[in-house]
Design a protein that fits this description.
The protein has 457 residues and is of the alpha/beta class. It contains twelve helices and 17 strands. The strands form four sheets. A six-stranded mixed β-sheet has the order 1-8-7-6-3-4. A five-stranded parallel β-sheet has the order 11-10-9-12-13, sandwiched between helices. Strands 14, 15, 16 and 17 form a four-stranded mixed β-sheet that branches. Strand 14 and strand 15 form a beta hairpin. Helix 6 runs antiparallel to helix 7.
């Protein structure tokens, strides 16, 4: 059976078969990197432009193969000289040190196609429609005919698609809960509820937990502890809702629908006992690593094996009919603005949150005005825990600094910063400092993922 090892997978092949993997002499390779392939290789033989034409790929590794197993050849090297592709065609073994599956590897898709269809001989018969059919069948099998189900609805594309899919199976036995936790964007709760009522026609209950959430977060600065506290508060809210619902439906709902995606699972790191001992936690997503150990609900996560672009494709299927306005929305983190205010979000009586809401509104509205919204994967502002000296109205100021972040991506696993025109950045910076009186300095984040993450926390 042909095997393609990607990133750690290539290192594992090399190590297991007698080669040698060591810490990279140059300190590793992260983000965009040029590579050159070797003419005549089986793995790159079908790449457009010729066997040896250079290409840009996306890296994320601190180790590298320095000695190959017997029978293997290095068929590509990076601009820094690292071995980034190996193959032993006679044994059907191939490895890539970079990530061909992400949009920022410009010919990665062609390389995967070459391996799958040219080398492995598999058929391209997978369809997004199959996911819908399979997940609907799973839900019908797991959820009994009399069971009522709670859905954590955030207003984003993931939870909206998950809710619509489950509602299609069980109808009005689905009870959606939208939690206004005090960490939402400007007028977000009103906008989301209006859209649910007008376009999706889903049964949604809005619950205000802002005061409780702020109490949980008071004095908490560590990003991991923030995410776990927020996840715990969400679950407590759903548990209380379930108790109330029991009075109406006759039993306490035991299922909770979440819009969990595969990147959430990957970055949160598999739990103990999963057998995946080599993974590292990037950040605990509130809906995965932030869940309490004594969770009383059985989770229903129909999107758990999908990436964001696949979820959008699923939502666009006529069978679901999710409005394009929802499908095309920029992602918004489950922990909300708590991970965009660095440090304690309650400091200063929550003034940082209010400042951030205003800055974010100005930034995103400017992006819409200039027709850039659909070209960007995600755009937002970050409140930094520093003050800057400035001059406004011929007076010295000692005010806050905010960072702007806008990235392109397809699945959220990798991302590159969006190259705004200088004139646009000048306009936005001026507008922010004029409108939001508590800010006197604006910076723009030009870090890719990796080495950074999309969110700052």
């Amino acid at each position: 059976m042909p095997v393609l090892g990607i990133c750690y997978g290539m290192q594992l092949l090399v190590h297991a078969l007698g080669g040698r993997v060591e810490a990279a002499a140059a300190g590793g390779e992260y983000g965009r990197m040029g590579i050159t392939t070797v003419p005549g290789s089986a793995l790159f033989g079908g790449v457009a432009g010729g066997d040896s034409s250079p290409q840009q790929v996306w890296m994320s590794h601190g180790d590298e193969a320095v000695e190959l197993p017997a029978g293997f050849a290095a068929v590509a090297r990076s601009d820094q000289g690292a071995c980034v592709a190996v193959e032993c065609p006679s044994r059907g073994l191939f490895g890539l040190q970079y990530h061909p599956e992400v949009m920022h590897s410009e010919r990665g898709g062609e390389t995967i196609e070459r391996f799958l269809f040219g080398i492995a001989g598999v058929r391209a018969d997978w369809k997004i429609e199959s996911v819908l059919e399979e997940e609907m069948a799973k839900i019908a099998e797991v959820v009994g005919p009399d069971d009522h189900v709670i859905c954590a609805l955030s207003g984003g594309v993931d939870s909206t698609v998950a809710a619509t899919l489950v509602h299609k199976v069980i109808g009005d036995r689905l009870h959606c809960v939208f939690v206004d936790n005090g960490l939402l964007r400007l007028r977000e709760a009103d906008r989301v509820m209006e859209t649910f009522e007008k376009h999706l026609h889903l049964p949604v209950t809005k619950i205000d937990t802002a005061e409780r959430m702020m109490s949980r977060l008071r004095g908490v600065s560590d990003p991991e502890l923030k995410r776990k506290a927020i996840g715990s508060e969400f679950i407590d809210c759903f548990a209380e809702f379930a108790k109330e619902l029991e009075k109406t439906v006759g039993h306490e709902p035991r299922f909770l629908v979440q819009g969990t995606l595969y990147p959430d699972v990957i970055e949160s790191c598999p739990p103990p006992g999963s057998g995946q001992k080599h993974s590292h936690t990037i950040k605990s997503h509130h809906n995965v690593g932030g869940l309490p150990e004594d969770l009383k609900f059985t989770l229903v996560e129909p999107l758990r094996q999908l990436f964001k672009d696949e979820v959008r494709a699923l939502g666009r299927l006529p069978a679901l009919g999710v409005p394009e306005a929802f499908v095309a929305r920029h992602p918004f983190p489950g922990p909300g603005l708590a991970v965009r205010v660095l440090g304690d979000v309650t400091a200063g009586g929550g003034a940082a949150l209010e400042t951030l809401r205003q800055v974010d509104e100005v930034f995103v509205e400017a992006i819409r005005e200039h027709g850039l919204y659909d070209k960007i994967w995600q755009a937002f502002a970050v409140f930094l825990p520093v003050r800057s000296v400035g001059v406004q109205g011929d007076q010295r100021t000692h005010s806050h600094v905010v960072a702007l972040r806008a990235v392109t991506s397809a699945d959220g696993m990798t991302a590159d910063w969006y190259p705004f025109e200088p004139a646009f950045l000048r306009l936005v910076s001026t507008r922010i400092c004029n409108v939001v009186k508590t800010v006197n300095r604006v910076v723009y984040d030009i870090t890719s993922k990796p080495p950074g993450t999309i969110e700052w926390e």
